[in-house]
Specification:
With 503 residues, the protein is an alpha+beta fold. The protein contains nine helices and seven strands; from the N terminus they run H-H-H-H-H-H-E-H-E-E-H-E-E-H-E-E. It is a multi-pass membrane protein.
Length: 503
């Protein structure tokens, strides 16, 4: 059963139990208040019937004075008023009340008759045996009726007190039942929370810690038909998938390590085995030119120049390929970098390589970045060299480097990015998707010589940092390359090590 279903059932059962006990308590309280009023009335009847009426009856029998008659009649009237109250009519023991009312109704005529005989005796001043006999009989009846009234009122009061005690015990029982019901609900809920939630949650926590520690074979193994059981099964499924993924990653890591070793071997082969024949070709052409140059005509000299040019181009291509391999393989050494200082060094080298041209570099100051200095220097070198190369036809070339907010096509969001902008030849944005591929060119070799690998190197460096790179250009209006770098691990220090310290 689901935990939320159990909680709903416990809440519903507790609510019903509390509502039933509360209803019974309300009914019992109403009955208790009613019985309390009845008990008070029964006590007053007992007081009037036992204490007052018996006392005044005894006083009258001892001294039949007018005041004794008045006191007796007042006691009798008080008892009559109390017995006339209908509060006890529908109470248990109503038969006792009926007998009290009957005895009370008979008592008054008997008392009046006794008073008449007493008055007659006083008026005649003659002893009358018949009168005395009647008085004795009436006195006996009055005493008997008074005792019966006293006994009946006592019974009535005892019955009421018994009912009051019963109701009080019932209320105490209901209160105890309410406490037990709430305690049972709390205990049951605690048991469910402990066994259905806390223990499974602890097992899930232990499983998460085991996975975090690298024990991908750990399983929860919690087979319960509730939410935590479902979560445990999903956790085990995730652990199984993670274990499979990690095994695949380890296999891929081994394959990647093998590929890196093969790449290193290939790089060594390229660096030595391929360059060695090129050096031989270049050496033999130089020897041919020196030894037989006089016997070669203009076409021969041109052919030798082309061979040497192709050798130089091949050397440059090999150098770019090796650089592309290195930026892919080398481990990142990230630090805070003063980019304007680094860009200034790269720009100085670009100006030296393009001596005689009018090139203006505009480098925005105060830019700090977190990255690998050597790789970012390679990226800026390629971007600046491209900017200088493709602006060669401009009388005054302008190259700008800085930071701005631009829309990233990969995320469709505006974010901070670094840029390198030139006023050169630009390119058609319709072919921008192949811009960063190796050996991809936007212009012909005759227009702008090059290997077509520079932007691929920049792209690889930016990706290795976890950033994005894109371009915006217009043919004949220049190009602008944007790239982002990942956020730094913290705020930049007050004094970032100057890039000039590495040059």
């Amino acid at each position: 059963m689901l935990i939320r279903t159990q909680q709903w059932l416990i809440a519903a059962a507790t609510t019903v139990a509390v509502a039933a006990i509360a209803w019974a308590w309300t009914e019992s309280s109403a009955g208790f208040r009613l019985e309390l009023e009845r008990s008070r009335l029964a006590t007053r009847i007992w007081t009037a019937g036992t204490a007052h009426l018996r006392l005044h009856t005894s006083t009258f029998l001892d001294n039949a004075s007018v005041q004794a008659q008045v006191d007796w009649r007042e006691s009798h009237a008080e008892l009559a008023r109390l017995l006339a109250t209908d509060l006890l009519d529908d109470a248990p023991g109503a038969a006792t009340l009926v007998e009290l009312r009957n005895d009370h109704a008979v008592l008054s005529p008997v008392f009046d008759t006794l008073v008449e005989y007493r008055v007659a005796e006083t008026a005649s001043w003659v002893f009358d045996p018949v009168n005395q006999a009647h008085q004795r009989e009436l006195t006996r009846r009055i005493v008997a009726l008074t005792e019966r009234i006293a006994e009946g009122s006592g019974t009535l009061m005892a019955q009421s007190q018994q009912r009051l005690a019963t109701l009080q015990h019932r209320q105490e029982t209901l209160m105890l039942g309410l406490i037990l019901a709430l305690a049972f609900a709390i205990g049951l809920n605690f048991t469910i929370v402990r066994h259905q939630i806390l223990k499974p949650a602890r097992r899930l926590e232990q499983g998460a810690r085991a996975i975090e520690a690298g024990h991908y074979g750990h399983r929860i193994g919690l087979h319960r038909a509730n939410e935590l059981g479902t979560l445990a099964r999903e956790f085990d499924h995730m652990a199984e998938s993670l274990s499979t993924t990690m095994a695949a990653l380890r296999q891929q890591g081994a394959q990647l390590a093998l590929a890196n070793r093969e790449l290193e071997s290939f790089s060594y082969s390229v660096s030595h085995d391929l360059r060695s024949p090129l050096r031989g070709i270049e050496g033999w052409t130089r020897a041919l030119l020196e030894d037989c140059g006089e016997r070669l005509d203009a076409s021969g000299h041109e052919y030798l120049a082309r061979v040497r040019g192709e050798c130089a181009r091949m050397n440059l291509l090999i150098a770019d390929l090796l650089q592309l391999a290195r930026v892919t393989r080398d481990e990142l050494q990230q630090e805070w970098i003063d980019l304007p200082a680094l860009a200034g060094q790269v720009a100085a080298r670009a100006l030296e390589a393009c001596r005689g041209r009018d090139i203006h570099f505009d480098i925005q100051p105060g830019i700090k970045a977190w990255g690998d200095r050597r790789l970012l220097e390679i990226a800026l070198t390629n971007l600046f060299d491209n900017a200088c190369k493709f602006s060669a036809r401009e009388l005054q070339a302008r190259v700008a480097f800085g930071r701005c907010v631009a829309e990233n096509p990969a995320t469709q969001q505006r974010e901070e990015a670094f840029f390198v902008r030139d006023n050169g030849a630009g390119f058609d944005m319709a072919h921008a998707q192949r811009l960063f591929g190796a050996f991809q060119r936007m212009h012909s070799e005759k227009e702008f010589p090059g290997t077509g690998i520079g932007l691929a190197i920049v792209h690889r460096i930016v990706l290795r940092h976890g950033g994005h790179i894109w371009a915006d250009a217009e043919r004949g209006r220049g190009a602008c390359f944007y790239f982002t770098l990942p956020p730094p691990p913290g705020p930049a220090p007050a004094a970032v090590r100057s890039a000039g310290g590495h040059g």
